[in-house]
Amino acid sequence: MNTAALPYTIGKPDAQLRYPVLIGDNLVIGWIYRWHRDWWAEHSAGSDNVHRPEEGMTGQAKAASHLAKLYAEGLITAAPLGEVAAEGAGTAVRTYGPAPLLHPRMPDTPRNREGARKAFAGLAAFLWRALGGFPGSDNHWMVECELCGWTGPKYWSHLRGRNGNPPGLKRHPGTCVGEDRIRELIPVYGPRKAASSPGGQQPEATASVSPPTRPRT
Ligand SMILES: [Zn+2]
Fold it and tell me: Which runs of consecutive H residues, i.e. helices, occur in the chain?
């Protein structure tokens, strides 16, 4: 029996933030994901908690190598990517239509539903679109920036802002639509403070914002 580590690659995550682990171009031996602090590996025989990575290792690598070892030992089976994607697992980040309220791993309780509704309302207010159900505030949530179409994982705990302040204007890695446009589209940010304002500590308007009249310099 060959138990040497198989070369594998990690594919693009689906809307639930599960990463397919691939042998060759197209053969999925399982899916890995982080849930709260632990990494998990899902495969044809169930799912395993591989816990946290050791120092100097990533959780992804730990979970993926766990799958590769199980596969090399003949304990799990692989399936073509197109086939598992067709089952609804999906590998494309893009989704169509509304996301479900709760992530499949979130227990369906009144408390979680209420938290999810608040989170969805918060996303809408800041022009984000959920690509999957609410995973709780401390798990990555796949979202789309409605301003520019960027998609990626975010924490709700970061997106909602802190202490009554809106989240930062730097929405995500890469280029968005620019601070002025963000301020125009999301009224809670208010107009940009004049550069000459002392300390910049005056309260910001929270009502709707009139179109900027300040000339660009
Ligand atoms: Zn953006």
Answer: 59-72, 81-86, 110-125, 156-159, 179-185
> What token pair was written down for 34?
């982080």
Residue 107's CB: how many other CB atoms inside 10 A?
8
Distance between Cα 174 and ligand 1 center (Å): 8
Ligand 1 centroid from CA 149, angstroms? 6
- Predicted structure pTM score: 0.69
Do 20 and 84 meet the contact criterion of CB atoms below 8 Å apart?
A: yes
CA of 145 to the centre of ligand 1 (A): 5
**Residue 159 and residue 135 in contact, taking contact as beta carbons nearer than 8 Å:** no
- Sign of torsion, CA 117 118 119 125? positive
How many angstroms does the Cα of residue 212 sit away from the middle of ligand 1? 20
Instruction: Please tell me the distance between residue 146's alpha carbon and the centre of ligand 1 in angstroms.
Output: 7
With a cut of 50, say whether residue 174 has pLDDT above it: yes
Query: Could you tell me if 36 and 49 are in contact, meaning their C-beta atoms sit under 8 angstroms apart?
Result: no
In sign, the C-alpha dihedral spanning 166, 172, 176, 178 is positive
User: How many CA atoms within 13 Å lie on the side-chain side of 132?
Assistant: 29
pLDDT digits (tens, 9 = 90+) for 22-74: 998 889 999 999 998 899 999 999 999 999 999 999 999 999 999 999 999 99
Task: Give the residue among 63, 5, 53 at the shortest CA–CA distance from 30.
Answer: 63
Give the pair of three-digit tokens for residue 215: 């000339």
With tokens 């890995």, the residue in question is 32
How far apart CA 125 and CA 56 sit, in angstroms, is 39
